[in-house]
Description:
Radius of gyration: 51 Å
Distance between the termini: 117 Å
Order of helices and strands: HHHHHHHHEEHH
Structural class: mainly alpha
CATH superfamily of the largest domain: Ferritin, core subunit, four-helix bundle
Largest sheet: 2 strands, antiparallel
Helix content: 55-70%
CATH class of the largest domain: Mainly Alpha
Amino acid sequence: MLPAVRFVRWTVLASVLVATLVSIVLAGRSPSAPQSLSSLFGGGMTDTRWGPLGASDRDMLIKVRQANLWEGPAGEQAAQRAASPAVREVGRKLGVEHAQLDASLRSVAERLGVVLPSQPSDQQKVWMDQIAEASPAGYDKTFVNLVRSAHGEVMPLVEGVRSGTQNELVRQFAIEASQFIGRHMEYLESTGLVDYALFPPSTAPAARLISIGGYHVPITLLLFAVSVIVAAAMLRGLGRSRRRGARPARPTRGEAEPRRQTPDGEPSTVTTEELIAVLNPPEPPPSASKSPPTAKIPRPRGTPDRRRPRDRRPPKLRRTSGDRGW
């Protein structure tokens, strides 16, 4: 195989793996990402008086708690700093309602024995800093778009748990949280500052198709599986090309084809030269023991041939013209 082709194949393979790794890391930093692999596949079930409590149920409670820890303070800050009266009113409502939702959440988590975090995630802290450091002219738009984007990421997680959980208490809270999140999205969109082009495209249909145990698996899991299949196919093709290049070249026309050997060491095929040699065997060379043939010596005229028997009959008399009286 040519070195250029080998370089292109390995470059494409490395690009696919790097892109997949980056997408998984970015998805893990999303508020709707699972906390563990067990939650991704619906494991870690615990029996409670309200029904089985799965890992996806606990993840949903943790994510909503982290959303309350940063969206509530961000709304209270917007109620003080926003330039638009509409944005200030939206911020006030978000601060009050997130406090109400957080109180209900802590009550549910206490009865289920779920430990909740005490601070938002690293990404959410970055968003809080971006809002706090925004200029007065761009503060309203920055606040509205970041908070609206965060609500849009948590909503599929809450709806997925609501549709698949077996725990009655978690289902009731998911219904309540879904109502709060939907109402907050309406508040933010009513300001007219939401830039929908900044949001990633919707993956809700794909998430419903690959739902596992009530938790909507991120689309990056499917991307990872596809990349593994592509990488395996490329490696297999690379191995085949190497084996093909290692095979001996086939003889050209007129050349004797090499004889193939069986495991016992005997030829498995008969070549054309061997077949011709069998059909037309060469003449044997003259033997050294035989004497060369002698030349035939001519016999003188009148010398009897001794090889023939001698004719002993009397010779016939020739008749003449004077012998008519006989």
